[in-house]
Amino acid sequence: MNPRDSCVCMYLSSISGRLKDTLSLTHMAPPPGIAVTLLLLLALQSYGFLLSFASANVYIVYMGERKYGNPELVSESHHEILSYVFGSKEAARESILYTYKHGFSGFAAVLTPSQANHIADVPGVVRVIPHRFLDLHTTRSWNFLQVDSHFRNGVLSRCQSGVGSIIGVMDTGIWPESQSFRDEGMGDIPSRWRGICQEGERFNHSHCNRKIIGARWYIKGYEAEFGKIDTSDGFEFLSPRDASGHGTHTSSTAAGGFIENASFMGLASGLARGGAPSSWLAIYKVCWATGGCSSADILAAFDDAIFDGVDVLSASLGSPPPLASYVEDVVSIGSFHAVAKGISVVCSAGNSGPYSQTIINSAPWIFTVAASTIDRAFPTAISLGNNQTVVGQGLYTGMDVNKFYPLVYGQDIASVDADEDSAGSCELGTLNGTLANGKFVLCFQSLSQRSSTAAQRTVMSAGGAGLIFAQFPSKDVSLSSDSLPCVQIDFAIGTYILTYIGATRNPIVKLNPTKTLLEQQISPEVAFFSARGPNSVSPSVLKPDIAAPGVNILSSWSPAYSLLQHQPSPVIFKIESGTSMACPHISGIVALLKGIHPTWSPAAIKSALITTASLEDQYGQSIEAEGAPQKKADPFDYGGGHVNPNKAIAPGLIYDIETSDYIRFLCSMGYNNSAISAIAGASITCHKSTNVQVNLNLPSITIHELKERMTVSRTVTNVGPVNSIYIARVQTPAGVSVKVKPSALLFNSTAKRLEFKVVFRPLLKVAGRFSFGNLYWEDGFHVVRIPLTVRTVLDDFYAEA
Ligand SMILES: *[C@@H]1O[C@H](CO)[C@@H](O)[C@H](O)[C@H]1NC(C)=O
Ligand SMILES: *[C@@H]1O[C@H](CO)[C@@H](O)[C@H](O)[C@H]1NC(C)=O
Ligand SMILES: *[C@@H]1O[C@H](CO)[C@@H](O)[C@H](O)[C@H]1NC(C)=O
Ligand SMILES: *[C@@H]1O[C@H](CO)[C@@H](O)[C@H](O)[C@H]1NC(C)=O
Ligand SMILES: *[C@@H]1O[C@H](CO)[C@@H](O)[C@H](O)[C@H]1NC(C)=O
Ligand SMILES: *[C@@H]1O[C@H](CO)[C@@H](O)[C@H](O)[C@H]1NC(C)=O
């Protein structure tokens, strides 16, 4: 056994030891769902328990655009490089996990750091990237379900429901028996499709059909880090089959067929369907129910998806900040190649909001999606012993409808060794089980206890009967568990209930079943958890791009966990919240648009959706963003605004971007010349030029440092009536002056693409904050709007002092 092997064995055994600890912990306190374990693992990861092992052994050796047409030659060249480093063909073959040979060239292998350094020097190797683990964007929630999507039908019928488009979903796999994936009425599999239906545990060819036309799974990177997944307990399947539910949820949101009378235990009932019910699905399982997704696996999935021929890729995953550079982040690299081949890549923005600069998946070629609320609410009445009723929200289906329970405040039943404040927010292990047993517990959100999730676990393990959780106003109810009655209230109601408890000898409480209320909640609003800009990698690229529904979404779910627990009725729909849920909404809409505009580039489709996005809620008022405090939403919350699919069909003008523009952009980022050449598949010499980033032809203009007069150019392509006249109109950001030249654009049969300049001038000599405006081009029929975001700065802030 060589030293490398023994090292691998050692850390694998220590990892599996930790995994066992984690599982037994959750067994002590029965989890409300499989995702409890998933989340616990993610939490451990964030404490560094797992991450400390995650960097040393798997490396991605990235070699850019492939050099040979024949994939076999490409993989031959990878083996040669490794043989050179290992000194033998056999050792090379053993170390290699994947060879990437379709969309681009490279491989993933188990290496020592010195071997990795060695390989970095081999000609043709662009970069050796230590492997990272990425998270699914459900971290805020583990109760899920979805209702019929709230888009109006117009776009569906006009786009024939996405006929002809193939959506690839990178996630935890799929539950193929879900009604969402029946193939009645689906067209035949297109002859251009080159994907496969990869078999595995409880998944064979019969599980693919004319809806799920391809399915693959990727585990080598994951297992190289964490050891073999034990599937004997039915907790996971070594196949495309989804054990956690997340992938089934996102796939059915993007392209699920129609299901009458879907509901989560009677709540949110109605017609369920995906955004593009007639699109085909191709499943790439890269994330595992035991927690996380490996970057080596993700890159392999990108490679295959490009080869297979998907039209749209939907990836509700990513690594948290600090972000890797665009030439090191696997989602950025994989999506660059996909976009260069005309495949739109749609990703979630992350769930670390409402804080500034938390946005992830921020490369300009990615379509980055923020989450918004919809017009559905789940009011839940709380009756107190003083004959008063207050209203919170939850997903309470009424286990003991008419029963009053004793009610206590967490702080009043603190365990002797616990801090009272921690007990007031029901932090883990702070409650006295004797005193909590059989009672409803009131707790208040605190800085160390941001979500009700841990509070639920605390109350459950203390034997409490239910939880009333006072928190910042948020519409997300998906965190309520199945097994513990839980209702969320705001601080004012929390304070009222606390007063009642203090003034009463035997305070009691009763929950009334949750109702589903439609159309009476102001919406959309940007969700509290949705990650915010500015972009921490390239501040002149506005992120997120757009907002779409991602709060309390009902969609299909994998029944694996409830089947495992022999629950009487398996959970096949769940309500879930996260930017993970927003992403597949956009993926579905992109598939619809591709159906009617098959020749449009990913940038053109993105432009159509961004320039037609809405800034108003259903009452015509400005969309707001949840936060502390709630405020009017700005482009750092929702990019161009809230998606408006029907308008995007005929946007009038588009801001298109070609691969060569992205390459110039990469040059301006200061990345290694040869790295960029390799990505481009041609020798590129980066030329020094100014303002490249701000001049990238995005459907937005973001100037994060305006010191003096600055001219920005954009080019628009007319996709509306051939002879059109567009007039510019500007809503000026505070503190600057904005001039558009020319102020009118005349399109005809020869003038289809026209350039214009926007001149910005600071009016104040002050280090300002970001201010926001809009540039509109209007022809009387179309309104083509892009957001303007400008911050004035002093020439030299330091010197001024
Ligand atoms: C495939 O799986 C289905 C359902 O589990 C089973 O009925 C069928 O026999 C399997 N087919 C093959 C060829 O193994
Ligand atoms: C819809 O489902 C509910 C409960 O799940 C059931 O009571 C009702 O009869 C169903 N309606 C139809 C039309 O199937
Ligand atoms: C609550 O209302 C009932 C019936 O209306 C009444 O009998 C009871 O005294 C009231 N209790 C309190 C605490 O006001
Ligand atoms: C819990 O409360 C009971 C009753 O007041 C008390 O006897 C016991 O010591 C407490 N235990 C802890 C761990 O606080
Ligand atoms: C790019 O990086 C490689 C290795 O890090 C180095 O050898 C090469 O000179 C760099 N190229 C440029 C143009 O900086
Ligand atoms: C289109 O417009 C341009 C510029 O206004 C003009 O030079 C050209 O002749 C026009 N072409 C046609 C076919 O009208």
List keywords for this structure.
801 residues; alpha/beta; Alpha-Beta Plaits; Rossmann fold; Glucose Oxidase, domain 1; 7-stranded parallel sheet; 23 helices; 39 strands; 27% helix; disordered N terminus; binds 2-acetamido-2-deoxy-beta-D-glucopyranose; hydrolase; signal; SBT; transmembrane helix; tripeptidyl-peptidase activity
Can you put this structure into words, describing what you see?
The protein is α/β, with parallel strands linked by helices. It has four domains: 3-130, 2-Layer Sandwich (Alpha-Beta Plaits); 135-375 and 524-651, Rossmann fold; 379-514, 3-Layer(bba) Sandwich (Glucose Oxidase, domain 1), CATH 3.50.30; 654-800, Immunoglobulin-like, CATH 2.60.40.2310. Helices cover 27% and strands 24% of the residues. The chain contains 23 helices and 39 strands. The longest helix has 26 residues, at 3-28. It is globular and about 80 Å long. It starts with a helix and ends with a helix. Bound molecules: 2-acetamido-2-deoxy-beta-D-glucopyranose (NAG) (6 copies). Residues 58-137 form the Inhibitor I9 domain.
What is the helix tally?
Answer: 23
Look at the helices and sheets and give the structural class. alpha/beta
Bound molecules: 2-acetamido-2-deoxy-beta-D-glucopyranose
Tell me the distance between the termini.
Answer: 63 Å
CATH superfamily of the largest domain: Peptidase S8/S53 domain
How many separate structural domains?
4
CATH topology tier name of the largest domain: Rossmann fold
Give the class-level CATH name of the largest domain: Alpha Beta
Query: What value does the Rg take, in angstroms?
Result: 27 Å
Number of strands: 39
Instruction: Sum up the overall morphology in one term.
Output: globular
In the CATH hierarchy, the architecture of the largest domain is: 3-Layer(aba) Sandwich
State the low-pLDDT regions, or none: 1-56, 136-160
Strand order of the largest sheet: 7-10-6-12-14-15-26
Function: Required for arbuscular mycorrhiza (AM) development during AM symbiosis with AM fungi (e.g. Glomeromycota intraradices).
Protein name: Putative tripeptidyl-peptidase II
Family: Belongs to the peptidase S8 family.
EC number: 3.4.14.10
